[in-house]
Design brief:
The chain is an all-alpha fold and 184 residues long. It is 74% helix and 0% strand.
């Protein structure tokens, strides 16, 4: 491996080994459907249970917090999680919180799609590149280029502001990944 810490071997650390790892990646990629579900069915589902869409999203986030607290309280890891997640908030917990906050704070297709696709597609890509031993610089460059095209697609289909993609997002992505690799 390059200058990455030992923590980055996801298969050995995953509950369920390779099967758990594949399940985790499948969940990640499957999160790409969440904006479609939210925009297509969110209003009707929340109305059926007597809530507004933001209230429904808030209830889902709160429920996930309760479940994550119980999981942590009992020190449980589930299939696909990493062993160390028994003692800390899981990636699934953080991801669910992040997706929920996107739906609460940026509930438009122009922002929800690129933000959630960046998580659901970018993170597994980055992880697989690292797992295969690619050096940090190439992982960062490949990820930034891939995510740039995700945002370009969202600019085309959902009117995501181009300046946000071309200037702000790519710069933030490079800074975040540099920090992530440099300080681990």
């Amino acid at each position: 491996m390059s200058e990455q810490v030992e923590l980055t071997n996801p298969v050995e650390l995953s509950v369920g080994g390779m099967g758990g790892h594949i399940f985790r990646r499948t969940i990640h990629i499957g999160m790409s459907l969440l904006p479609w579900i939210y925009f297509e069915y969110g209003e009707s589902v929340s109305a059926k249970i007597g809530l507004t869409l933001p209230q429904f999203v808030s209830v889902v986030i709160f429920t996930l917090f309760v479940l994550e607290s119980l999981r942590l309280g009992f020190g449980i890891t589930i299939y696909g999680q990493r062993e160390y997640e028994a003692k800390q908030i899981s990636a699934l917990g953080w991801g669910a919180f992040g997706v929920g906050m996107v739906f609460l704070m940026a509930p438009t297709e122009a922002y929800a799609w690129p933000l959630i696709l960046s998580l659901s597609l970018g993170d597994p890509l980055l992880g697989e590149l690292r797992r295969r031993g690619m050096n940090s610089r190439d992982v960062i460059v490949t990820s930034v280029v891939f995510l740039f095209f995700v945002w370009i697609a969202c600019w085309h289909w959902f009117d995501t502001p181009f300046w946000l993609n071309g200037l702000v997002y790519v710069i933030l992505m490079i800074m975040q990944r540099w920090y992530s690799f440099h300080w681990r």
